[in-house]
Amino acid sequence: MRGFSSLASRASSPAFTNLSKQNRNSLISNTPKPSNLDSVASTSNPSNQQSSSGKPSLNWNSNTSIAAKKGNFRGSVIDQEYFTQILARKDWYLLLNHEYKAKRVTLNQQAVVSILQNQENPLHPFRFYIWVLNICPSFAKNKSVREVLGNALYRKGPLLLSAELVQDIRNSGYVITVDLLCVLIGSWERLGLGKYCADILEQVSYLGLAPSTRLYNAVINALIKCNSLDLAYLKFQQMQVDNCNPDRFTYNILIHGVCKAGVVEEALRLVKQMEGVGYSPNVFTYTILVEGFCNAKRVDEAFELFGVMKSKGIVPNEATVRSLVNGVFRCMPPDKGFELLSRWLEKEPALPSVACSSTLRCLSTNFLPREAAQLLRISIHRGYILDNSTLNIVLTCLIKGLELDDTCQMLDFITVRGVKVSVDIYLALTESLYKAGRVEQGNNYLNQMFTDGLVSNTFFYNRVIDCFCKIKMVDKASDAFKDMLQRGVTPNVVTFNTLIGGYSKVGEVNKVHELLIILLEHGLQPDIFTFSSMIDSLCRVNRIDDALDCFTEMVEWGVAPNAVTYNILIRALCVLGDVGRALKLLRKMQDDGIQADVFSFNALIQSFCRMNKIDEAQRLLVSMLTLDLNPDNHTYAAFIRALCKSGRFDEAKNLFFSMEANGCIPDVLTCKLYLDSIIQSGRTEEAQAVLRECGKRGMLLEPITSS
């Protein structure tokens, strides 16, 4: 490339030779291939594959091949494919027992979980779990393993309890326990099969089981989750027929169901009934009731429940408090909700910190920065410890919604009191200060970040550099890069890509060139982002031939261009008026199997419209629609401008008013463009109507004055 040292020409340099021969080779995947197993579809996790070592395939006519695979269980990497083969066979339990007796399998939680997770057929984890329970009954109490089984049955299921499955378990000599049946019911519940759960409960005797309170609870819970409240009540009434007495879990499940349905009075009746049979409401009962009252917009009664809990010595947990706070904001205007919660927080100083953090989150998501700042001060004064996530959400809201001085005062207020602020907040505030021209103050916060040790590795240096590049303060970005090197922090490709992108946006091609050389000297390989930024920098200074040369070189480097790369070149060619070459590039893009996007077409459509070649632009629009690409405001604006210039105002009007129906809501710029065009044509009444419609949408456009 002219004035831009060719990447290919530097391939002979020592550093580059090392990069091209060694680094490129290191990118070749060395992932071992799975063992070649006959007639079995692989369902193993790629990360757990064994290397291909010439293992014999499983011989279905002989069990001797099992012994030949003796290393499969005890190795650090589990051969998931081998387990899949065993569990797919009718004599699966015999083969598993054979391996266990030969001491070729070690059962621990990690191994059991791995096998359960890596089976494609839901029958296989079910079989394996039953076998494990019979070998090591203690696993029945392992909640983690039981949850993994439930997730496997849900993701790959449903696994229905057919006659064939029941017979298969009987043939193995094992049984389906209540624990196992509850896991199955849980998976059916998540799959929406509540009615099926109820049907199975009617037939538990065929499994050698008797109805129990635990089974009824599992089924009633499944019916509630599947919105079958009537059937849940029917099962509740059948419990006593089967000599099963409802317990606190039963009542809590039903109370949750009726609260979810908005029938709070029935929930209160169930609470009384529960107390009548000797079960007092617990914290979970009250949490459900709080949620129910809020959903029914009976907020005062939700607050009263906290008094009831206090009188009974029940301490609300985080879920109880969170249900109240979220419920208040959900059922009333945010400002009114905050007033109500503020009074409550003043009366209850002993509430957990989640009360303040939940309220702060709600205030921030509803964009009430002043109220959030007020509560944040109170929270800090009370000594509440806020988690980083909440603090980030609140401070982000303050940065966006308050005056910079107020935000800075708040940040100083909390940091002086020992509250640690994340890099994200410092960078967001620093960026806002720099944009406002308050460089010195921005520098102070930046220095504070480094003083607090928040910028100590490549990742955080990249964040700082990216912040400067976004606001086009590339000199500051360069200073951060130099500081990074001086501190011995190693830059990566992301570091260089960020800097190259920043300098390309301000048109400093020479700096881009220098950074490319440093990147290569560090033994790094340019990627798609590097090349796209380089091409963009050349296009910005109208060196289109050099940009096309760079495009060719990236292919020689084995870096495949993407839609962004093509779009940069297409846009640049259109800006220069070379629509012919831009069209050829669009065709090449499609020939290379890269999906063109709306940006690819917009540049060409805008060019044709500027040249008043509306028919050619419309043909491109048809091609665009054929690819299921929806026109955006830029597309419509180009056509509206061209049609108005051609005096085709009725067509422009129809196009403008068809936008929303076609899934594109006109933005301020499109509305202003259309308004200006029809005003110039003397269509004042039509313009007034458009202006009123824009006003309804909250768009502030200049009023139209009659000439």
Automatic annotation (TrEMBL):
Identify this protein by name.
Pentatricopeptide repeat-containing protein
Name the Pfam families on file: PPR, PPR_2
Q: Which InterPro entries match?
A: PPR-containing_protein (IPR050667), PPR_rpt (IPR002885), TPR-like_helical_dom_sf (IPR011990)
The entry sums up its family as follows: Belongs to the PPR family. P subfamily.
In terms of NCBIfam families, this protein maps to: PPR (TIGR00756)
- Segments for region (Disordered): 1-61
Gene source species: Datura stramonium
Q: What are the alphabetically sorted keywords of the record? A: Repeat
